Each structure stands twice: as C-alpha cells, then as structure tokens.
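Deliverable D2.4 — example input (structure tokens):
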C-alpha cells in the first residue's frame, strides 16, 4: 500500500473527504468544503497521494454517519456505494485504483478516528461508540481481505 501510494498521482489533499462534501446540484456533482482537515497524516501537506482522500471517503461510507444508523448498516449496500464512488472516480480521473490500498487506508482512517474520538467527543461518548467501531472495523477488514484476494488473483 505504501509503494502504491508513493507511486500514485498527486492531487490537492482535502484530508476529510466524506459523503457530506458531495452535493448534487442543478449542474451536477458539487464538491463542498475544500478546507484541509488538521487530523491527516501530514497536517502541513496540501498535495498528497490520490489514495488519501479516496481512502477517507471509503472509510466514511463504512463508518456510517451518524453512528446510530449502524443497526441499519448492510455490507452489501456499503459495497455498492463504494463501488459507485470508485467507478466514478476512475472514469473521471482516468486512473486505475487499487482497491486493497484504498481499504488499507480506510482502516488507517478508522483507527485514527478511534484514537481521536475521546478528544473530539468526550470520554463517555467514545466509550459507548467503541463497540460500534469494532463491528465496523471487522466488516471493513473483511472487505480489505476480499479485495486483497481478488486483486492478487488478477
């Protein structure tokens, strides 16, 4: 994953690119909130691997926002959302993406979220959300393994 990220094209780095940044307007898709997030791997970076923001988007689709929707979480539905986003990105950018790398980064972002949760949400809320996050992490890890096997076979 590190090698692929290093070799991937560079682009402006948003830092917390999630579904809330995509709006549908009369003219098509609008990207909203182009302000970098200070929680990224390099807070001084404004250009980075295309995989950073793509991985964050996949993390946000798996992480379910808001967290109380987790009982409605369906892995098949999330896979469809991810597939649609990734196919659209590949079509517009004319880049072929490695799904394993994307999902490894999504796991990175999820672990980073867990690390920052007590500071952002408070100890009590973080304690309540940890079991939900463990469930999400298990599902995301299974998806990462699925892509690793699929891409290795091709």
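Example output (designed residues):
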């Amino acid at each position: 994953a590190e090698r692929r990220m290093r070799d991937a094209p560079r682009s402006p780095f948003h830092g917390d690119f999630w579904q809330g940044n995509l709006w549908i307007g009369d003219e098509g898709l609008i990207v909203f909130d182009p302000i970098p997030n200070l929680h990224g791997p390099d807070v001084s970076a404004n250009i980075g691997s295309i995989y950073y923001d793509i991985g964050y988007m996949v993390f946000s689709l798996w992480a379910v926002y808001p967290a109380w929707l987790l009982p409605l979480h369906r892995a098949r539905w999330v896979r469809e959302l991810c597939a649609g986003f990734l196919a659209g990105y590949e079509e517009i950018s004319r880049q072929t993406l490695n799904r394993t790398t994307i999902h490894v980064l999504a796991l990175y972002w999820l672990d980073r979220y867990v690390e920052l949760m007590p500071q952002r949400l408070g100890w009590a809320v973080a304690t309540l959300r940890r079991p939900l996050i463990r469930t999400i992490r298990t599902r995301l890890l299974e998806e990462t393994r699925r892509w690793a096997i699929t891409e290795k076979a091709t």
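The two ends are 17 Å apart (CA to CA).
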